[in-house]
């Protein structure tokens, strides 16, 4: 397979006119050449933090506090999840997965509620999807065992020492929310030596220092934090200290579109468009132990091909800024994902 256009090549996303050569689902070459194509060829996005289960509750709970919305066990989201029957839940997640793929996402990291059953439900929703998933179970060691790891709610909610050890022993990923509502759960989360933290809105100087010392990766979800009213994560301070990736968080609060998350982040913070695109691709992949997120030989061919001559993008001067700050799902010509 050959994909032609302006290719955002390598870790710098250097725009080069030419073609990406794909064999058996792998990029084998990126060739500079004069081509007759207006396409912009970008690595498919990696959504580093989702809760797809709440696809059943889109735009529910206006005006509720974060705790009333999502705190286990009786936050609105958890009540709605308990009440939903399994078929409804699986169908709603499948619709979100389909939308994620259409909007250019090639892989995602899911914090899945509902224990072992919850992990099985998303496996059912994923059947037939080409998206690469990293599903982190919750609640029990068994949920971790049937999943790709464990996604902890937050260090103040329970004692996670035993499941942390079991996850390490299994050689799987352990991620944990920290610093979303306040700073009280950040040190206990760091003490667990997780593979990554999520949110860190309330990171203080000491926490930033610990993050820098341990090079602890952080997934930020700026739109989610705005919707729940907890504040803005210190994206610039975090980015200067460690690997930072973007996630769209709860589907019931925000659409799982990386275009929207990138635009928002790019316009709210000082990071360059290149840095924001890195946060939306290779950084999330690296945190999740995936190989994708860059266009270079040897990488899996996960690509989003945009129509650079759409009414929205026509005449654009800087293709990286176009992808990060302007593009939307309607500009996607196709998404290439190895099945
Ligand atoms: Zn979350």
UniProtKB/TrEMBL annotation:
Start and end residues of each Amidohydrolase-related domain: 40-129, 197-336
What InterPro entries does this protein's entry cite? Amidohydro-rel (IPR006680), Metal-dep_hydrolase_composite (IPR011059), Metal_Hydrolase (IPR032466), MTA/SAH_deaminase (IPR050287)
Which domain of life, per UniProt? Answer: Archaea
SUPFAM superfamilies hit by this protein: Composite domain of metallo-dependent hydrolases (SSF51338), Metallo-dependent hydrolases (SSF51556)
Q: What name has this protein been given in UniProt?
A: Amidohydrolase family protein
Q: Which organism is it from?
A: Haloarcula saliterrae
Which lineage? Archaea, Methanobacteriati, Methanobacteriota, Stenosarchaea group, Halobacteria
